Amino acid sequence: MNEIEKYLARAAGRENVRVGQDITINIDLAVAHDVTAPMAISQFEKIGVNRVFNQKKVMFVFDHVFPAPTIPARHNHRQIMEFADKYKVRCFGKGEGVIHQIVAEEGGLSRGSMLIGADSHTCTAGAYGVLAFGVGSTELAAAMATGTLDIEVPPVQLIRLEGETSPGVYAKDIILHLIGKFGTDGFTDQGIIFAGSWVTSADIEEKMTISNMAIEMGAMLSYFSESEEVGPVSKTQRIEVNTLVPVMACPHSPGNVKPIADVLNMPINQVVIGSCTNGRISDMRVAAEVFSKGNVHPKVTCIALPASNKVAQIMESEGLTRIMREAGVTVMNSGCGPCYGGHMGIVTADDVVVATTNRNFPGRMGAKEANIYLASPRAAAEAAVCGKIVLPGTAVPLGGE
Amino acid sequence: MDSKLTFRGRVWCLGDNIDTDQILPGYAMAYPQAQLKCYALAGSAIPDFAQRVKAGDIIVAGNNFGAGSSREQAPVALKEAGVGAVIAQSFARIFRRNSINIGLPIMCADIIGKVKDGDEIILDLAAGEVSLADKIVIKGQRPGDNVLTILEAGGLIPKVRQQMQQAREE
User: Fold this and answer.
1) Which residues of chain B lie closer than 8 angstroms to A188, CB-CB?
2) Cβ–Cβ below 8 Å for B72 and A36
3) Domain B3-169 belongs to what topology?
4) Of B26, B97, B160, the CB nearest to A340
5) Which of the residues B33, B65, B69 would you substitute to probe the A interface, choosing the one with the greatest number of A C-beta atoms within 10 Å?
6) Where are chain B's structural domains?
């Protein structure tokens, strides 16, 4: 068995599992946020049980519509708080951060744990070896009652990331390259194990950026290995990361990936730095390095959202928040913000956006004609300063970080 | 022919990679469930779909239907708007599971290009077949028995309800 199968077998209480087999796994944590929890709660209440399977293993996080921008959003928050009170489960209801970051900080999970989350980017936790399943509200409701999840054992491919990246190339460029290469359905219903020398030397935040976007290739599971021997897999892909260049996912798909060199000088008027993909402290340090030497272009709205309050606190203590604000960046509370078009940065049809987020589908951030480019924090910050798409190193020389 | 798993309806054709932002835009996610139907496909190439759809209509699409977000509001909006079934060349995993879990029938079949908007077709899930207007029958991927059981029950919750009841009685 490979590493994913080994952990699935353990969670299913079986000696072994084989590809295609239907199994029931025991889960270690079930999570939902403020736009998926309300539906999960109403479905849960139809099941007719008076308790969740384990009070310590269910948790809610307010991140998508917090603080509430609308009356229905506030109703959702009130409903979740009442449920959490009644069933004695944890509720992060004070804007502590984006669910996937809060799971990493407070979830108490370890390598081989089983996580299910009512959000597609639940796969972020694969960065630290958790088998993390993104599900819908009904499946989450069922798991809140039963403590289990029914799945079929997926075929698993190994992606070996080898070597070192060039200056100006980041984890975001690696995952965007992969999505461009394999397509937005390249791994549908499959698991991915990431390994290789780049993975061995990468820090956890870089791995989280990559694991976060595994769903953008349709993957069922993403798992970062710590070993060189991951066991038998259906296929092995090998990527020499030193051959990669800075890239962007161009409108209107995360799979429409081009070298930045091919889209140079495109005028832009909004930049978003943050999200569960790239809102961690290393991302903010990279962005602040640019803003310490250049101000936001007069025609650009630049928004930064830390992935959690912990990230925001480190930004404060390192002086990054001040640097960004002085450069003209709107530093907001932690949360999802404009990433999914909910609030705090909605765009019009003729807006052109560079964002460090994970999706640029039509209408993702507002008007469906708006053009959204997905990029690394460095490329986004430099675009904010120059008012157009530029190669990393154009606004501020590389190497100072 | 099991009528519970057979669906007759008018076709609406869509392309490849119809993502969940097109099916139900992010801004509508926090809206009350009863309102979701008004936003079905609001972000797609047919933004007025919700006003024009008739009960039982069938969406026919290309590859990777439902890509992106896990928002169950997407299949719920389609179902509440009256969509009887979705037939696509392939589905994104979470959307596929969400649809089954809420009782929206879906099946993989390659019929895009063989039908046009307004055609009347019949989806026979138990047989894994689609009958087109001119009596042509296209084989699709018949869903597994466990999926058909969930769809017949009207979704996952009735199944789990029964399962939990049994566990209590034992």
Assistant:
1) 64, 90, 92-93
2) yes
3) Aconitase; domain 4 (3.20.19)
4) B26
5) B69
6) 3-169
Domains and CATH numbers, chain A: 22-152 (3.30.499.10), 156-245 (3.40.1060.10), 249-386 (3.30.499.10)
Q: Residues near A196 by Cβ (< 8 Å), separated by ≥ 6?
A: A159, A160, A161, A162, A238, A239
Distance from C-alpha of A36 to C-alpha of A52, rounded to nearest angstrom? 17
CB neighbour list of residue A286: distance below 8 Å, 6 or more residues apart = A170, A376, A377, A378, A381, A401
Let me know how many helices (H) and strands (E) chain A has, helices first.
13, 18
Contact check, Cβ <8 Å, A138/B71: no
Q: How many CB atoms lie within 10 A of CB A298?
A: 7
What does the pLDDT look like over A213-236, one tens digit per residue?
Answer: 999 999 999 999 999 899 999 999
Contact A293, A396 (CB under 8 A): yes
Tell me: the pLDDT tens digits for B45-56? 999 999 999 999
* A306's tokens: 């830390």
pTM for the complete prediction? Answer: 0.97
- Euclidean distance between CA atoms A301 and B106, whole angstroms: 42
Strand-pairing partners, residue A56, are none
How far apart, in Å, are the Cα atoms of A271 and each of A116, A249, B75, B165? 31, 14, 31, 52
Chain A residues in contact with B19 by the CB 8 A cut-off are: 359, 361
CA distances from A2 to A5, A7, A9, A239, B157 (A): 5, 9, 10, 20, 33
